[in-house]
Structures are given as structure tokens and as C-alpha cells.
Amino acid sequence: xxxxxxxxxxxxxxxxxxxxxxxxxxxxxxxxxxxxxxxxxxxxxxxxxxxxxxxxxxxxxxxxxxxxxxxxxxxxxxxxxxxxxxxxxxxxxxxxxxxxxxxxxxxxxxxxxxxxxxxxxxxxxxxxxxxxxxxxxxxxxxxxxxxxxxxxxxxxxxxxxxxxxxxxxxxxxxxxxxxxxxxxxxxxxxxxxxxxxxxxxxxxxxxxxxxxxxxxxxxxxxxxxxxxxxxxxxxxxxxxxxxxxxxxxxxxxxxxxxxxxxxxxxxxxxxxxxxxxxxxxxxxxxxxxxxxxxxxxxxxxxxxxxxxxxxxxxxxxxxxxxxxxxxxxxxx
Length: 332
What we know:
The protein is an alpha/beta fold. The chain contains 14 helices and eleven strands.
């Protein structure tokens, strides 16, 4: 099964969600090595993208021109959104995604037309001006990621999706929670079906999808054309491709054996250090190392040693003992 966007074929329809501070370029590249229908860059504010000096980190993180990557932008003004989209396309982006789902207070708390992310669910007329500005500014496919609504009294994702489709949006991803839920409770995959029924473009289900079982249930309950996974891939970059093979068929990736796992984590660690430089790389890498160790049930002593080591040489020397083998790596 595949999804067609313009001249692009996204196959399989199991995608990596954008996660702030997590799905940076080194991690997306690692996930893509195992197999992914699409990976989405971390969200970047439209004005931040345009005001950055050429060659700065924000530009590199988006993965302009990287096959199978969607560049996600956010904002509250049509002019800046359009200019950011033009810049992204000129830099090589093949797909541009509009974020209208981020629940973070720093994104949604601005008053009136200054709010962005999921706050736009409170003003669909304004949201449509942004969508129309982006679609009208570029020739590449434009997609939308949003939530079910602002709260339980304002479940207007189906209306937004329909109006977005009429404006030229070519795919819609729905996180099965409202903004006011943040990440609490359970994602409501059943509620996504109303969005699927409202549009003819592909709909992607997101939220609490962590393995093949939850992916199958989400697809059945929502009627969606594909799924997007986020937190379930942390510490398991092969998980996306593994779920895709179980749900949609095809060859599953080989889950790394102990030696291969240690080698993979070490290379990812070095890639993060190279990408961010020191000392930022050390801090960013710790969370990924923590997730890797979560999946091998590292003992507390070894875990603490890895996470408190003060040099890359020390970390790399400690990893083989910390990343002991575990059957959990085969689970999907």
C-alpha cells in the first residue's frame, strides 16, 4: 500500500512524527536507513527559518532535499508562512507540512491572530488564510497536521480538513486528542473517522501508535490510509519499518543483534556529536542513550555511568556493557 502526493510515492504509509528536540537529522537518517515511508522534520517557526543566517543549524536540521522528508513549518501570519514555504521549496524540500497541532503553551498562548499550532483550531477562518498562503506560494505538495479540536466542545477537525482540502492540502494527519488533552488520556482513533469521511485526500492517524497491534486498531477504527508513530520509535529506530512490514506486508528489517545494536548506538552517538558539536552534543545524546538503555533493561549503575560520563571516549567505552542483549528488541 502506498500514498501518492504529486510525483512522490510514500510507501509504506507508516511515517515518523515530528517530535521537538528528538527527531533531528541524525535520528531521522537512522530511522530512514531501516525503512520509512516518510519522516517529518522538527517544527520550525516560519520567521525563525527566514531570519536564520545561511548555514546555521536550523537549516541543516530540516533535511532540505533529503528523499522521503517533509519539512514542517508553523506560524500565524500568511506572509511569513508563504515566504518560509518558498524558501523551503527553493532549498530542495519535496513536501511542506503545516503544523496546526502543537499543544505547547509557548506556541498557543499568544492572543488573537498571534497564536499558532493547535490554537488555530479556535479560528478556522484565520487558519485557512495560512493554508491558502502556503499552497499558493509553492508547487510541491502541502500537507496538514492537526488535532481533533481545541477541546471536547470544539471538535472541528473534520471542518478544517474539508476546508483545507478545498484550499489544496493533499494529505491530513490527525492526532487523536484535543489540544486541551495535551498527551493525557488515550488517543481517540474512532473520532478520526469523521475526518476521513469528510475528505477525499489521504488521512493519517496519529497518537498512541507504538506497535503493529495498535497500528492495526488505529487503522480499523479510524479508516485512515496510514499511521504516524512518534514516541514508540524512541530507542527503537527499526520499529517503524517493523510495524510497516507486519501491517502492510513486505520484508521486515533485521532487528540488530547485540553486537550490531552496540555498533548502531555508537555510530548514532558519534553522529549526534558531529552534528551538534560540543558540549551541546553530549547533552542531546543523553536522552537517546537513555531510551536505548530502556529497551535493554540496563542496570542502574551502568545507566548512571553512561549518563554522567563527561567525555565521548568514556561514553563509548561504557556502552558495550550498558547495552546488554534483550529479547525486547524483537518486540513489535
